[in-house]
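Hi there,

I know you've been waiting on this one. I reran it after we fixed the sequence typo, so this is the corrected version. Both the input and the resulting structure follow.
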Amino acid sequence: MSTAVALLANPTAGRGRGATYAGRALRRLRGAGVEVTALQGADHAHALDLARAALAGGTETLVVVGGDGMVQLGADAVAGTSARLGVVPAGTGNDVARTLGLPRRDPDAAVEVVLRGHHREVDLMAVSGRRHVTVLSAGFDALVNERANQLTRPRGQLRYTLAALDRLRVLEPIGYTIELDGETIRTEATLVAVANMASFGGGLRIAEGARPDDGYLDVVVVAPLTRRELARSYPRLFTGSLETHPRYERRRARRVTVAAPGVVAYADGERVGPLPLTAEVVPGALRVLVP
């Protein structure tokens, strides 16, 4: 593999696993004779600037340690260059690692993947000037995320549980206008997602079988569900069987615009912004190191 590597970590990922895994990755890479520059950004923008500066200075491999948010940052930095992205998963979701078959709980094994240097070209999803890797969520799950971010307590998963209960209490259909490669659809729905990969949110398999290298985005629309139907259907996201639900519809497109009032979309676990938003596939934009 390349001997010029930059390592960028989110030390708070996985409730502190990020810092531990970053230290182990740094020692293992240097122990293998790799020249490693350790980067630490003060925030997302600063970290992205550091990564891009390292790549502009000749770094050929950027290794990120963290969850899907860090992978998104790394992909944003690497896309459009000849550099490759290595991933040491340390988050709570790790959907990119799940999709690409990367070791999710063994940082030493993840570093071995980096050292072997085998890469795969995958698509990215461009939204509002940034490139995303997994899924743009723009339905009930996005509303839950937005509500959870408004709460100051409690901390951890319980905050999302309370946010879900709060949004479920006021659940009602959302009116969407969706453009798929120029075709306009107006519909009401409970869930809408634009997927580059099959899962998001720690294994929610919204678009089972979606390929990250086919040059398309998978657009999922779940027609309005009652509170009881949503509660009963939600576990099916973890098994990939939601697609057999009679209100589940899936289309494919290269360019998708989603509009709806009052919805703030999320992608790769991060807040993207209020709708309307346009997502466009960027074929083969990312060279990522895989087993």
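Quick highlight: The chain has two domains: 4-117, 135-284.

Best,
R. S.
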